[in-house]
Design brief:
The chain has 3 helices and 12 strands; from the N terminus they run E-E-H-E-E-E-H-E-H-E-E-E-E-E-E. By secondary structure, it is mainly β. The strands form 2 sheets. It has a 6-stranded antiparallel beta barrel with strand order 1-2-5-4-3-6. Strands 10-9-8-7-12-11 form a 6-stranded mixed β-sheet, with no helix packed on it. The relative contact order is 0.15.
């Protein structure tokens, strides 16, 4: 399984107690799905090369102070899990949660082409910023520079994930 096809769901930040529990910083919008009993995850070193991941199964999980305490099946002692501090928990792209209409993953937006409602090519979305009230998509312009698009209904008209295309309306002052 290649690295590009894996989605981060958490990072192991420490151990918890002596019975093999791990403290995990969640990196998912779906912790109830990812960390439920029986959920299968991939345990990956920070600089994972292909074939280095270990498939694990969540035995139990509980939320504790913005972290999750996970118990992995078969890992019943601190000595078995201590070496995994700093490792990441991932799932394959095929295991991602289906989203509702009008929702999309950030990884599906990055690299998409932005065009105006008249078809003028603006560039490609290179980053997503979250400064406050709404996200802002950063569009790399072909001749250099960035265009910042607020993610609001008046600006983002249509998102075609399979076509990797975002249709926008340029409000006064955006260019």
């Amino acid at each position: 399984m290649t690295e590009e096809r894996l989605l981060n769901v958490g990072k192991i930040v420490n151990t918890h107690g002596i019975r093999g529990e791990l403290k995990v910083w969640p990196q998912t919008d779906f912790p109830d799905v990812r960390f439920r009993n029986g959920s299968r995850l991939l345990l990956c070193p920070p600089e994972a090369a292909a074939g280095e991941s270990i498939e694990v199964e969540v035995q139990s999980a509980r939320e504790q102070k913005k972290l999750f305490v996970l118990k992995l099946r078969g890992y019943d002692h601190i000595n078995l899990v201590e070496k995994y501090k700093g490792w990441e928990l991932k799932v394959s792209n095929e295991d991602r949660v289906e989203l509702e209409e009008g929702e999309y993953y950030l990884r599906d937006i990055i690299g998409a082409e932005a065009v105006t409602e008249d078809g003028e090519k603006l560039g490609f979305i290179s980053d997503v910023l979250s400064p406050g009230a709404n996200d802002v998509w950063v569009v790399k312009r072909p001749k250099g520079g960035d265009l910042l698009l607020p993610v609001i209904d008046d600006v983002i008209l249509e998102v075609d994930v399979p076509g990797r295309l975002v249709k926008v309306r340029l409000m006064e002052g955006l260019l």
